[in-house]
Design a protein that fits this description.
Helices cover about 35% and strands about 25% of the residues of chain A. The chains are: A alpha/beta, B mainly alpha. Bound molecules: adenosine-5'-triphosphate and magnesium ion. Chain A: This is ABC transporter.
Chain lengths: ~250, ~325
């Protein structure tokens, strides 16, 4: 369980987060939406222990976050930069396995298995720069999943992809979430996406000093599909509500 | 692209109009540095320049032999034309001070490269002249490279160490290296230790400064990735910092290599040396043996070229497909 208690964050004199309190139960897929620059990435960096919270506390399974928590994985917004271009795709994905003390062959086997799972078989020996944006994003997701995280943070992971790739990856994410029961905090600025993917949507207000302005449970059928779900009256109602909250910060 | 790259190395920044811009360059609007390695820009004189985030080293053209062949031919044809022109001018003039290149080459061949097959055609004179020089140069250069990379990465990784060391580095770099040789003569007396120390000490600064700049410019996002992946210190160094700094390190190594050659010759020009190419040069000069002087000069040119080519080959191997395509 992830708990944030009155978390405040600032860069110098510039306030970014102004008292965020949230409880994310195990296995929930929480979507965080908000206008650009409101502090979504900052929130994830703070949860990941990369930025110490200015005020307030964050706990993961009861343990206060001081450094990077155990069994945490992050998919960064700038996924292309987050991969190491001098390593092959397989070595990028296998990198987090080193600390598990696995043999080289075992690391490679696990990396290739997870690559297959995200729909990337046959590119293990290529380099990230030789792949398309969508493929690079799958590599970044594979690297995050390879250690079987219990908490996964994703920062606008599908932000710069074309519609079709994006839908495929949304469904991949849902499938992984259903199979592994990972707790996921998924940041996006796409309102439709947040409702489609999330179990719950939290809306942050416009900065500086943003706070939670809306916290909505998504009670749509668990089994989602790109055409059907987006046509449901419940979906339309939710996206209208989220959209209004994002626009008016209310 | 090898030719393209090397030509870029020899071409001043301003006259690059004939170079094609790769798609990546036109997108970022960032030009290649004279040495061809964009993120690894060598600091020529002013160390205060901040390095941009390591950009993609996109050189798709490097892998296209067809496109590389034209500049390659062009480059060699210019050299050939220069030599032919020199030959013609020297013959026409007939001055004893400026012998034609063919005579120089024939003299050099007789002097050094007409030995038995078992000695790779090297003569006794070559073994006694070239090998000691190269040995001292290699020792000095390797010492400088190892120490420079290690110290440079250490300095570049710590913001405080960098702030503290930077003035010292800028100062040490500003001293013309040959000016330091007398100091080493006093401390170590004439001989190989003095020569190796002079080479190593002069060649140290370019690698050190460039390694520090390279390590300092490690992408902060990638450092966050390393933290999230919980890489250990050595892993972070090996998988992240060192590869990020590699283009800069090689930019520094190339400067250090040419300084090593300069210092190798310079330290052999001093009294008290008994072998080496520099010694051959002064010795032939006192005997007014101009053919040998010119031969030694040509030999130095060829050696410098071959060493630089070798270093570029190593660089291309290490900075592999991940960044070059
Ligand atoms: N390293 C930094 N130093 C100073 N200010 C920063 C830094 N990073 C972000 N900011 C500021 O903090 C605010 C929040 O930034 P953040 O990146 O968290 O926004 P975001 O919600 O992720 O935006 P986007 O949707 O565009 O990714 C912005 O106003 C930004 O200018
Ligand atoms: Mg962001």
């Amino acid at each position: 369980m992830l708990r944030l208690d009155s978390v405040r964050q600032r860069y110098g004199d510039h306030p970014v987060l102004d008292g965020i309190s949230l409880t994310v139960p195990d296995g929930q897929l929480l979507c965080v939406v908000g206008p650009s620059g409101c502090g979504k990435s900052t929130l994830l960096r703070t949860i990941a222990g990369l930025l110490p919270a200015h005020e307030g506390t964050i706990t993961v399974d009861g343990t206060p976050v001081t450094g990077v928590p155990e069994r945490l994985a992050v998919v960064f917004q700038e996924y292309g930069r987050s991969l190491l271009p001098w390593l092959t795709v397989r070595d990028n994905v296998a990198l987090p396995l080193r600390r598990r003390g696995l043999r080289r062959a075992a690391r490679h086997a696990e990396a290739e298995a997870i690559l297959e799972r995200v729909g990337l078989s046959g590119v293990a020996r290529r380099h990230p720069r030789q792949l398309s944006g969508g493929m690079q994003q799958r590599v970044a997701i594979a690297r995050a999943l390879v250690c079987r995280p219990s908490l996964l943070l994703m920062d606008e992971p599908f932000g710069s992809l074309d519609a079709r790739t994006r839908e495929d990856l949304e469904d991949l994410l849902l499938e992984v979430h259903r199979a592994d029961g990972t707790t996921i905090v998924f940041v996006t600025h796409d309102i439709d996406e947040s409702v489609y993917v999330g179990d719950r949507v939290v809306v942050l207000s416009h900065g500086p000093g943003s706070r939670v302005v809306r916290d909505l449970a998504v009670d749509l059928p668990g089994e989602r599909d790109q055409i059907g779900t987006r046509g449901l009256p419940g979906f339309v109602a939710l996206r209208t509500e989220v959209g209004r909250a994002v626009r008016h910060g209310e | 692209m090898t030719a393209d790259r090397r030509r870029a190395h020899r071409t001043p920044e301003g006259s690059r109009t004939h170079m094609s811009r790769t798609p990546d360059e036109s997108r970022t609007g960032q030009a290649r540095t004279p040495d061809g390695s964009r993120p690894g820009k060598a600091l020529a004189s002013d160390g205060s320049r901040t390095c941009p985030a390591p950009a993609v080293q996109n050189s798709r053209s490097r892998s296209r032999p067809a496109r590389a062949a034209v500049p390659l031919l062009l480059r060699w044809s210019v050299l050939l034309a220069a030599v032919v022109g020199w030959e013609a001018a020297a013959r026409a003039h007939g001055s004893v001070y400026f012998p034609p290149p063919l005579r120089i080459a024939r003299h050099a061949h007789g002097l050094w490269f007409s030995g038995p097959l078992g000695h790779l055609f090297l003569t006794r004179a070559a073994v006694d002249t070239i090998l000691p020089s190269l040995g001292r140069m290699a020792a000095g250069f390797v010492l400088a490279a190892v120490a420079g990379i290690a110290l440079g990465i250490a300095v570049g990784r710590s913001r405080r160490a960098y702030a503290l060391c930077n003035p010292v580095l800028q100062f040490a770099r500003a001293v013309p290296p040959p000016a330091l040789v007398p100091v080493f003569v006093v401390v170590l007396d004439f001989g190989t230790p003095m020569q190796v120390a002079s080479i190593a000490f002069s060649a140290l600064w370019p690698v050190l400064v460039n390694s520090a700049e390279g390590a300092r410019a490690t992408d902060p996002l990638r450092l966050e990735v390393a933290a999230v992946l919980r890489l250990t210190g050595p892993e972070r160094l090996w998988f992240l910092v060192l590869p990020s700094a590699l283009p800069r390190i090689f930019a520094g190594l190339r400067l250090s290599l040419s300084l090593s050659l300069i210092l190798m010759v310079f330290s052999e020009l001093l009294p008290g040396t008994a072998d080496g190419i520099g010694f051959t040069l002064t010795d032939a000069q006192t005997r007014s043996d101009l053919l040998t002087v010119w031969s030694a000069l040509m030999l130095l040119g060829v050696l410098g070229f071959l060493l630089n080519t070798g270093l570029l080959a190593v660089e291309r191997r290490l900075i592999g497909p991940g960044r070059s395509s």
